[in-house]
Amino acid sequence: MERIASLYRSEEFDQFPKDPCDAIKKANELTSNPQVISKINDIKNKTLENGAYIYSSSNTDMTTKYLGPHISSPNESSISIGTPPWDQSKGYATGFIHNHPNGGAPSPSDIFVPAQDLIHFASDKTMSYEMLKEYNKNYTSIVVSGEYVYTITIRDPFFFALAQNSYQSRSAIERARFKSRVKKFINNTEGTKEDVQKGGDASLLDLYGRLINICKQKIGEPNTNKALIFSNGVASFIEC
């Protein structure tokens, strides 16, 4: 744990961009990728969960993205994606894109499951400091839901690593915490699909806003991402 802290709490990582405007720029770049746009259009109206891993061209240059093979699920509220690949033969997975047929917001599993194990990465002597830094800057989880595309990125690598490690043994508890907050939110609304999505937005940021950035844009409107922040019990948009 000391090595993890020394890496993710070092001066350079402590200066990791936390500005929502940086997250917006990153989200706009990725959701403007032709392969990503094509996948969004492919999965947006499917009644079961479908998706694909997002890969980088190498483990050093993680800015060039491409999508892996299509992954389908027999379920409308979950998808099995295995362990994110990270080698020359299978590819270097830096994220995942999938749909939510029920129109709900991203869930805690959408934050952590597609991500490489950051504590393992920090313990792996073959992972250089620059590789760790680049991975954290380029990790993205995209969720296509209702009229919107969500892009989740890492805000604080140290707290993300700790929360991810905890989630691996507490996933059921974390999902229950999330659902409880959503339920509490929609109890004060009319309970429409839009209310449920807004409740999910607020609940996710309430629980994990210190770890992640969340951006959101309407499907078919690239380069219009706005960042979400948690304020006064609701998720509000920030434009840059």
Explained architecture:
The relative contact order is 0.17. Helix content is 42%, strand content 23%. Strands 1, 2, 3, 4, 5, 6, 7, 8, 9 and 10 form a ten-stranded mixed beta sheet that branches. The termini are far apart. The mean pLDDT is 92. The protein is of the alpha+beta class.
Architecture blueprint of SSEs:
Blueprint: H1 2-8, H2 11-14, H3 20-31, H4 34-43, E1 50-56, E2 65-67, E3 71-72, E4 86-87, E5 91-100, H5 108-112, H6 118-123, H7 129-138, E6 140-145, E7 148-154, H8 157-186, H9 193-208, E8 212-218, E9 226-231, E10 234-238
Parallel strand pairs: 5-6
Antiparallel strand pairs: 1-2, 1-3, 1-5, 4-5, 6-7, 7-8, 8-9, 9-10
Helix pairs in contact: 8-9
Instruction: Give the number of helices.
Output: 9
Low-confidence stretches: none
Amino-to-carboxy terminus distance: 37 Å
SSE string, helix = H, strand = E?
HHHHEEEEEHHHEEHHEEE
Radius of gyration: 17 Å
- Give the rounded overall mean pLDDT: 92
Number of strands: 10
